[in-house]
Amino acid sequence: MPPEGVPLCDKTEILSYEEIGALVACLGDAFEIAKIRITGGEPLVRPGIERLVGLLADLGIPDLGLTTNGLRLADMASCLKRAGLRRVNVSLDSLQPDTFRRLTGGGELRPVLAGIDAALAVGLVPLKLNAVVIRGVNDGELRDIVAFGLRTGCEVRFIELMPIGPGAALFANGFLSSDAVRYELSRHFALVPLRLEPGTSARRYAVSDAEGRHGSVGFISSCSAPFCDECTRLRVTADGRLIGCLARNDGISIRGMLRDGDVKSVCQAARRVLEGKTASRAFEQGMAMASIGG
């Protein structure tokens, strides 16, 4: 999140839960949807988010997940599970309270850890911990974060810093490749590559420590080893813009189509966005991820 925040949508521009449900139902009729993840910004600050979870769960999505900063997760894990949520990803860039506070603009670590415990307790699994690695900021914690994942049974996913939003100013000095992260971890853990599943963003490894604990760790290498060629993901922003890639500064607004009940045009727009995907490595996105659903 940029220090100054991000521009807010007028409430009339934001898709209702019913409109999001209608979009998913429409795309489900035209394409095979294997996975839906509710993201943000921070999805748990939107009132009644469990109602959206319920609407999507009723559509029979095989894999229904949610990505959260975890600050409200302890209070909401049970109702999200009851509504039909299957799993969560939690952003955890540091286990040091001061570093965590710096990276999150004042966030407190303790409620996030409590949220992870609560999600595990109600069965929101597999639970994945997302850590964006920044050289000179949290790269000294790689071993500790993996050890935390092994203790709790969570999969840690290390994400390369991308030159998007606030990350652009940090990129020149802060970027650390997945190869460098993996090399550092190999000094402390046994890493064995797992089969690469088509269409996934993470290269996953089985990981074990000297005490015999086993788990998995993933590497999302958006800059050093892009997964564009196999990507079939679509992303819809809060105000109804359909985009095919975080790095591209484009997309098609489908809000008016949804509100007009124009299912045919919605599907045509989705097909155009999918066909417009590119393997270009250029990062053209000028908006912060909080504005586009990162």
Question: Please, could you describe this protein's structure?
Answer:
The structure is a single chain. The protein is of the alpha/beta class. The protein has one domain (11-292): Aldolase class I (TIM Barrel, Alpha-Beta Barrel). It has eleven helices and eleven strands. The protein has helices spanning 17-30, 49-57, 73-83, 97-104, 109-122, 142-152, 167-174, 178-186, 255-259, 263-275, 289-292; strands at 35-38, 63-68, 87-91, 128-133, 155-160, 190-193, 202-208, 214-220, 235-236, 241-243, 252-253. The chain has an eight-stranded mixed β-sheet, covered by helices on one side. It has a three-stranded antiparallel β-sheet with strand order 9-10-11. Strand 7 (202-208) and strand 8 (214-220) form a beta hairpin. Helix 1 (17-30) packs parallel to helix 2 (49-57), helix 1 (17-30) packs across helix 10 (263-275) and helix 3 (73-83) packs parallel to helix 5 (109-122). The protein is globular. The termini are close together.
